[in-house]
Amino acid sequence: MDSATLLHPEMLPAESERLERLPAEERVRWAVEQFGDRLVLSTSFGIQSAVMLHLVTQIEPEIPVLFVDTGHLFPETYRFADELTGRLKLNLKVYQPQMSAARQEALHGRLWEQGREGLEKYNFLNKVEPMNRAMQELGAMAWLTGLRRVQARTREHLDVVQLQKRTYKIHPIVDWSERDVYQYLTKHGLPYHPLWEKGYASVGDAHSSAPLTAGMSAEESRFNGVKRECGLHESNGRSDYQI
Questions:
Q1: Burial of 86 per CB tally in 10 Å (0-12, 13-18, 19+)
Q2: pLDDT at site 53
Q3: Mean pLDDT of 237-241
Q4: Does position 236 have pLDDT exceeding 70, yes or no?
Q5: Are 178 and 49 in contact (CB under 8 A)?
Q6: Residue among 30, 70, 68 at smallest CA distance from 49
C-alpha cells in the first residue's frame, strides 16, 4: 500500500455522506487509497468475521489484520482463526495483554464478574491496551471494522467513516442487514463461526458470551447484558485511550 493522504476532520461528514451511497467494496477501495500503509483491519474471528476478512483482502491482500487474543476465547474461535488465516492467506498480527490471564485473576479476581467497573478494567487490560499498542507499533491511523447499525443500539448512528479519538474508523458494511451478510457468505462459500450452529449470535470471550434464549437480543447475549461494547468501539471513557 502507498503512503497515506491526510483527510481533514472537517471533511468527514461530507465524505461519509458520499460514501454512504457507494457499495462496500468501493468504501474499502476509498480507505486503501486514502490511508495507504497506515490502514489496518481488525477481527475478533466472531460469528460473521469471514465477511470483512474476505471483502477487504480481495482488494488489499497484504493489509495487516489485527487480532487481539485475550486468552479467554472459545476453543472453536482459535480453530476458526486458524482456518480463515490459512484459507484467506491473512497477514495476521496477533496481540495479547501484557499481563497473563492467570496473573490477572490472581491479582484482581474475575474482573468480568465485578459489575460494570470490573468489566471496564478487564476490557482495558485485555482489549483496549493491546489494540492501542498494535496501532502504535504498526504506525496505523485508520482502522477498518465490521460494525453494522443493526447489531446494537450503540451502533445505530454510525457513519461510514468517523473519528474515534485520534483514529479514523471506516465501517464498509455498516448498512448491511443480516440477509446481506448471509448472502455474501453463501455467494463466496464462507463459513459462519462454528458456535453459530449452537445458538450464538455474537461471540467474544467464553466467560462473557452466551447463546440466545427466547426473548433475548444479540446485544444482551454479551457481558451478561451489562453492556454491549468491549471498549474498542467506545469514544468515551479514559482520556488515555488512543482508539
A1: exposed
A2: 98
A3: 40
A4: no
A5: no
A6: 68
Residue type, 176: W
Asked whether residue 13 carries a pLDDT value surpassing 90, the answer given is: no
User: What number of residues does the chain have?
Assistant: 243
Query: Which fold, 9-225?
Result: Rossmann fold (3.40.50)
> Which of these, 101, 95, 93, 137, lies nearest to 122 by C-alpha position?
101
Q: Which of 21-35, 53-67, 147-161, 190-204 is predicted least confidently?
A: 147-161
Q: What's the Rg (C-alpha) of the chain?
A: 17
Q: Which residues contact residue 98 at a Cβ distance below 8 angstroms, ignoring those fewer than 6 apart?
A: 125, 129, 130
Average pLDDT over residues 166-172: 93
How far apart (Å, rounded) are the C-alpha atoms in residues 226 and 185? 31
What residue ranges do the domains of the chain occupy?
9-225
* Residue 230 bears catalytic tag: yes
* Active-site residue (options: 4, 53, 190, 230): 230
C-beta of residue 60 within 8 angstroms of C-beta of residue 32: yes
Longest dimension (CA), the chain: 51
Residue 212 has pLDDT above 90, yes or no: no
Among 145, 164, 138, 175, residue whose Cα is nearest residue 28? 145
Amino acid at 20: E
